[in-house]
Amino acid sequence: MTIHSLTGAISSRFYSRWLAADPARPAMAASLAGLSLGPEIFAKVLQNEMAAGMPLPRAMRRLRNLVVAVLIERDLTGRADMNEVVTTISELAEFVLRTHVAALSTELIARHGTPIGDESGRRQELIVLGMGKLGGRELNVSSDIDLIFVYPEDGETRTDSADQRSLSNHEFFTRLGKRLIKDIGDITEDGFTFRVDMALRPNGASGPLAASFGMVEEYLIVQGREWERYAWVKARALTGQAEDISALEAIVKPFVFRRYLDFGAIEAMRGMHAQIRAEVVRQETRHPERSHNVKLGRGGIREIEFLSQVFQLIRGGRDAELRDRSTRTTLRTLAAKQLLGAEEVEQLLAAYTFLRNLEHRLQYLEDGQTHTLPANEADRLTIANMMGFADTPALLTALDAWRRFVAARFDAIFADKSGQDSDEDGSQVDIQAALAHGDDPDALQASLAALGFVDPSAAAQRLLATWQSARLQSLPATSRNRVIALINSALPLIAACRDTQTVTLNRLLDFFEAIVRRAAYLALLIEYPHALKRVIRMMHSSNWAAQYLTRHPILLDELLDDRTLKAAPDWSAFSAELQRQMDAAAGDTERQMDILREMHHAQLMRLLAQDLEGDLSVERLADHLSTLADILVGATVQAAWQTIASRHRETPQFTVIAYGKLGGKELGYASDLDVIFLYDDDDQEAPAHYAKLAQRFITWMTSHTAAGILFDVDVALRPDGASGLLVTSVASFEKYQAESAWIWEHQALTRARFCAGDAAIGARFEAIRETVLRQPRDDKALRQEVMSMRQRMHAGHPNASTLFDLKHDDGGMIDIEFMVQYLILRYAAQHPELVADIGNIALLKLCGKLGLIDAALAEQVANAYRSYRKLQHQIRLQGEDKTRVEVARVEEDAAAVRQLWTRIFG
């Protein structure tokens, strides 16, 4: 098919006029129609135009018209898709800007000299920031381009001849910016290259055309508004020196991306959307023919952009992968991170493609910057045909379907939930008036009683005390109203906690008082009522959970999505994501320490939620917590080693060995890590470097940062204890265990394992451990040592209460652990399977199976140990330090343990 025969099929009046204006154009278009256009072709065409004597501005306009015409043909004949169209136009805009800036800079420098920075003494260059769709490389064919002009430093131009007249850098770059706008934006006989919009610059139309970095930074800090964060998400430097671009990004990043999860962005973007919608409705009311705005209308392109960008503003400060400027790339990232469903994202991408294709066809008609369907039916039919529909009603049916889908997804995230009730049965009280009249608590008590509070007087007193506290009264009215709304929503839910109403209310109000100055957290709970329900359930179930969430409210984010909250941990994926984030923050120790804590806290919250829902057994939970600790220990060793500048090798021959609860894979939520450090490296620098690594490991683990603490670490089990070296060579460890270790140290070795680091050293440790545990022992001496150590531990934990101490009392957990340790040390020489690190319950059953103890009694004691651990876990969740219960609850279990103790030790 020739280019002439295509003109009928390609229903673009702009295209037809462009072809008809010059007999050479059909052949030129035909030569390019089979190609995907890009910068190399742009440069070649421009060179040919300028070689014919045309000035740059006119040659660039002719290039632009050619590119648009070829894209129209390729798109409407099915040879180009939407991605090619937006990418080509974006690359053309970048080519135009870079070419003109280079030419104009050369011209102005010849007249006025080279701009030099006062502080650095370096040459200064104009940085042109592409905003909006240009920044995201998603321009449409007739789009204007949103630009901001910035330069690094104030100063003056340095002249080289008397003919040059020096200017301030500000004046130099202002002149350059004005010329740039004129050269590409003025309408001439060849049209324009790109319309330019500078409204997004600091202070808008009233602000300077070009701003220094200092001006930009001051503006963003002092005056930057929420909608400008949305705009600056897409800011992309198209010209300038790399180091200056990096410096500018460092200024902009804290303004756009908050380090905390910023759910206040939802409300801000909701307000922006409402203003846009109001203007569209106003225009459609005044001009009914301007209907179906595919960009700004309900369910249009802008709503899809908002959907992706709100997640960027909320989470981009913590997740660099969410800072991409492309709407389509961001949507795919949201699916990959399970922040939106994969099927939902595919539908949104399909809707985006449909709407952008329709937008292009609206603009193909006259090369006009329009986003609404034409007023006359003939043009509407033309658009329908270009979209592949037989008639206008078919197009409108498809358009309405996509817009309804987008609008529904938009509403699911942006619908105003501040007035919604989180109580499913609709019971609600308006507590605001009652709180406002604190001198008359009777009305408040009556409301609480009506809700079902057993002790409305106590609840009213606490509510009033919280409300009248200086902390809440000093808040802005918006935040106080949010607290009122949250309390209104929470009270019916707390009333349902019949036996723990007062306790749950106190925990929740403590939590509210901790977060009231963080508007983002209040906004999150308003936006997601089901998250508030989960908070209340957790605080009802566990004081430890309440305290943990109060210390780390950033974890509220983890309560939003059932899919991630209830999913079984994928430790391989977790480890890979942790390493990716650590690598991205390489060189920033503070950030890496926070990443470790943030990811630990987030995973801990998911496990806690599953635990409180009854989805995890105590053993399964301990396995997960131990695996989580192993991964974090490994990542910490790797990162801390990179901070030792004088390290003698890239990969340390260094290993962390876990003892105690971590060694036995019985870790709890707040357990310490008992560890020792081994190395196997003959380099003379090794001892000093590995000692420094161990010290930094402890610091990384135990330091309090803005994100809290990771783990407390205990290294007392190393050879020679507190008087010994912090790190030990494998050879020295082997010799110590064979010749110098006490029996209690061999007992500890029964619950030790390789945790992280060099796997070869880990294997050597396991071999040493097996050798030590399997050595023949004198039974009498062994019994005496074990019983003596047990007596010392018992004396160190007296219990004067009438309750049974699950851990330390006779018949408790320590007795069980000591019996297992004794059985391993006594019989492993004959039964090597006893050295396996399979946990106390499995080891007891194994000893019964081997005939070392009565099998039935072994089963009873194993069940007792499981019961103790479950009770201990429940008590720890209530925040108690001592795990004690009524004797009657464990009488049978304790009797079985004491019976086995008597049979073993007499």
TrEMBL record:
<keyword id="KW-0548">Nucleotidyltransferase</keyword>
<dbReference type="Pfam" id="PF08335">
    <property type="entry name" value="GlnD_UR_UTase"/>
</dbReference>
<protein>
    <recommendedName>
        <fullName>Bifunctional glutamine synthetase adenylyltransferase/adenylyl-removing enzyme</fullName>
        <ecNumber>2.7.7.89</ecNumber>
        <ecNumber>2.7.7.42</ecNumber>
    </recommendedName>
</protein>
<feature type="domain" description="Glutamate-ammonia ligase adenylyltransferase repeated">
    <location>
        <begin position="533"/>
        <end position="767"/>
    </location>
</feature>
<dbReference type="GO" id="GO:0005829">
    <property type="term" value="C:cytosol"/>
</dbReference>
<dbReference type="GO" id="GO:0000820">
    <property type="term" value="P:regulation of glutamine family amino acid metabolic process"/>
</dbReference>
<dbReference type="InterPro" id="IPR013546">
    <property type="entry name" value="PII_UdlTrfase/GS_AdlTrfase"/>
</dbReference>
<dbReference type="InterPro" id="IPR023057">
    <property type="entry name" value="GlnE"/>
</dbReference>
<dbReference type="InterPro" id="IPR005190">
    <property type="entry name" value="GlnE_rpt_dom"/>
</dbReference>
<keyword id="KW-0460">Magnesium</keyword>
<dbReference type="GO" id="GO:0005524">
    <property type="term" value="F:ATP binding"/>
</dbReference>
<dbReference type="GO" id="GO:0047388">
    <property type="term" value="F:[glutamine synthetase]-adenylyl-L-tyrosine phosphorylase activity"/>
</dbReference>
<keyword id="KW-0067">ATP-binding</keyword>
<keyword id="KW-0511">Multifunctional enzyme</keyword>
<feature type="region of interest" description="Adenylyl transferase">
    <location>
        <begin position="436"/>
        <end position="906"/>
    </location>
</feature>
<comment type="function">
    <text>Involved in the regulation of glutamine synthetase GlnA, a key enzyme in the process to assimilate ammonia. When cellular nitrogen levels are high, the C-terminal adenylyl transferase (AT) inactivates GlnA by covalent transfer of an adenylyl group from ATP to specific tyrosine residue of GlnA, thus reducing its activity. Conversely, when nitrogen levels are low, the N-terminal adenylyl removase (AR) activates GlnA by removing the adenylyl group by phosphorolysis, increasing its activity.</text>
</comment>
<feature type="domain" description="Glutamate-ammonia ligase adenylyltransferase repeated">
    <location>
        <begin position="57"/>
        <end position="243"/>
    </location>
</feature>
<feature type="domain" description="PII-uridylyltransferase/Glutamine-synthetase adenylyltransferase">
    <location>
        <begin position="272"/>
        <end position="412"/>
    </location>
</feature>
<dbReference type="GO" id="GO:0016874">
    <property type="term" value="F:ligase activity"/>
</dbReference>
<feature type="domain" description="PII-uridylyltransferase/Glutamine-synthetase adenylyltransferase">
    <location>
        <begin position="783"/>
        <end position="883"/>
    </location>
</feature>
<keyword id="KW-0547">Nucleotide-binding</keyword>
<dbReference type="GO" id="GO:0000287">
    <property type="term" value="F:magnesium ion binding"/>
</dbReference>
<comment type="similarity">
    <text>Belongs to the GlnE family.</text>
</comment>
<dbReference type="GO" id="GO:0008882">
    <property type="term" value="F:[glutamate-ammonia-ligase] adenylyltransferase activity"/>
</dbReference>
<dbReference type="Pfam" id="PF03710">
    <property type="entry name" value="GlnE"/>
</dbReference>
<keyword id="KW-0808">Transferase</keyword>
<dbReference type="InterPro" id="IPR043519">
    <property type="entry name" value="NT_sf"/>
</dbReference>
<keyword id="KW-0436">Ligase</keyword>
<feature type="region of interest" description="Adenylyl removase">
    <location>
        <begin position="1"/>
        <end position="425"/>
    </location>
</feature>
